[in-house]
Structures are given as structure tokens and as C-alpha cells.
Design goal:
single chain; mainly alpha
């Protein structure tokens, strides 16, 4: 979980670098996978299924954030009420931000399938870049970057406060 927190912190750094105009990471891995899938019989259908699966996972993440279900696996009872409230808010915001980014990635897969163009299948870097190009893009990108930082904090909280059942 701590490693996942570090990875998501680096994704947030990518978003902040995009916000400052320094560019982001590539999505060659997704493009290669998409090209392989598109070359298969029924390849476009396979890529749409991948996109819908990613979007379904994103929906699950958003649902988890809305209901606060991810907090059930944490043992926060030892924290002061005010600190616990902040930890809960940060965790929910982080999971929701991750869901938004995955929605965009799933959409990129679907666009790649509809256009039969593997170059349309973007990864997280492309998702963040797309946010940056929208109206109010820098604000949206800043919010998502903060959300990814919050997700990194959530992962660190899971590493620290996870409820481990006894056998």
C-alpha cells in the first residue's frame, strides 16, 4: 500500500508538471496493447470491452468514494475526531479523483476502438493532458492533481491504519 501511495504521488507530480507546462508521461503501453487487440478478430469489440471495463472500475471507485466504503477497512478509532474527519475527507477525495482519471482512460480506449486508431488509447498522462486542454483546464488539472495526492495519502493511511483480521 505504501508503494501504491508513492506511485500515485508521482502521478500527482505529473499532473502538477502538466499544470506548469512541463509536459507529462507517454501512454505507449496502452497504445501497444490497443494495437495488439485491434489486430485480433473482433479487435474493436475487445477494445470497447476494455474501455467499458476500465470505466466500470472507475464507477466503482466513485461509488466507493460517495459511500465512504473504503473507510471500513481502516481502524481510525484512535484518532481525535477532528483529525479523523480530515483523514476521511482526504481518503474520499482521493478515491474519487482516481475514479475520474480512470473514466477518462476508459473513454480513450473506447475512442480508439471507434476510430480503429491505437494512437487514441491514452494512459494517465494523456488523461491529465486532456483535462489541461479543457475550459478551466488548469483548475480541473489542479483539482485532480490534489485528488491524486489525496489518493496517495489514502494509500499511506491504508498502510498505517488497515484493519487486519485475526484468524
Amino acid at each position: 500500500m505504501a508503494g501504491s501511495g508513492v506511485i500515485h504521488a508521482s502521478l500527482a507530480l505529473t499532473a502538477f508538471n502538466l499544470l506548469r507546462g512541463r509536459g507529462g508521461g507517454g501512454g505507449g503501453g496502452n497504445q501497444g496493447l490497443t494495437a495488439k487487440l485491434l489486430s485480433q478478430p473482433f479487435g474493436q469489440v475487445l477494445v470497447v470491452v476494455v474501455g467499458l471495463s476500465v470505466m466500470a472500475f472507475a464507477g466503482y471507485q466513485l461509488y466507493q468514494a460517495w459511500k465512504g466504503r473504503m473507510l471500513e477497512e481502516l481502524s481510525l478509532s484512535g484518532l481525535a475526531a477532528r483529525r479523523r474527519t480530515w483523514v476521511e475527507r482526504i481518503c474520499k477525495a482521493g478515491v474519487a479523483a482516481r475514479g475520474v482519471v480512470f473514466l477518462l482512460v476508459g473513454w480513450f480506449f473506447i475512442q480508439a476502438a471507434l476510430r480503429a486508431d491505437p494512437g487514441e488509447a491514452g494512459g494517465l498522462g494523456e488523461a491529465l493532458g486532456t483535462l489541461a486542454r479543457q475550459p478551466f483546464g488548469p483548475w480541473l488539472l489542479g483539482l485532480v492533481a490534489l485528488g491524486l495526492v489525496a489518493y496517495a495519502v489514502y494509500q499511506l493511511c491504508v498502510a498505517r491504519y488497515r484493519r487486519i483480521p485475526t484468524p
